[in-house]
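Below: protein 1.
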Amino acid sequence: MENSTIEFERKAYHEFLDWKAKLAGKIAYNSTDPSVGLELNLESSLFKCYFADTGLLVSQSMTGEKEIDGRVLRGILYDKLGINEGMFFENYVAQALVSAGHELLFHSKTNPKMEIDFLIRRGIKTCPIEAKSAACRRHASLDALIERCRGKLGDKYVVCTEDYHEEGGITYLPFYMAHCL
């Protein structure tokens, strides 16, 4: 297959994904260099899809159930079901960032393995954001990025279930304030 054909098919595939995302959610692309020019360093083959409505995501993820009643939803809210709450939490943060006018970008590397959930720009600085539904004090990827990009990053955030506080140069923001970013 010729390179021009492959490039055309790749472009058509991503246009289709963008169209689908506008209907149901948003696509986040990987920025391979979070220190400058986030859009200049996009890896379009690595992306995440987020639902526009986190409540709809919760209900759609349980379509095999005959009936979803209040007990199931309370189980999710109070961490009693043992499901991947992190997925719902990250989707909620994505929804809040989009509503605040941000494009969804993230940073992922395989060697060493690391992933920063979201990147936003404030002026000329990149602000990394980690979404943590539990154990918000453990953020090895964020720590590694801070070390690697020393002095090149703006404010650093962990959106979590704890109260607002600052510690070690990182702002811990309660999830209900994510739309303020």
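Below: protein 2.
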Amino acid sequence: MENVSKSLILAAAVLISVLTLAVIIALFRNGGNLGNTYQSRREQEAISTYNEPFTKLAAISDTVDDAGTVTRTGKITIYDVISAINYAKDINQEYIDEGYVYDANDKNSDYIKINLYTSSNCTTLIRKDEDGIPNCEDVAGKNFTQLIYHKLIKAYSKDTDIWGISIAGYNSDGKINDVKFYLK
């Protein structure tokens, strides 16, 4: 009887050890995934922050409900457009400072390309004039801000000049890299 009792105690100890080991392994596996989940969430937050100057403008432009009714929830003015262009200029300048060379054919670039159009069909660009309004292919030029402020504000600062936005491209990380602003 004594041996049976000792063998049951030994079997119970082995069973408890195996269960404890299984719980420890499960905790390590979940702990490893927790770090990956946290990292993924941080990356998504960084991308959202990066895209925010454009996505917030898209959110105030127009909304379409399930029935197809378009509702204007706000208006984008030339000042909003210039703020977004300046944000793109700053981002692009960082890439230029790091030695990046803009390539218009690189659809996976972090470089933000912005174009300004005369209408919502986005076919007619607001062209460079004799003073050189850049059409934002190179939004990191030294005279860029001065030209934007002097030419765009003078030309499009009336209350009737309402702009729309079309986010035309993302890179493989989900960052916006192609934006079209157009006069409505």
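Residues 54-183 form one domain.
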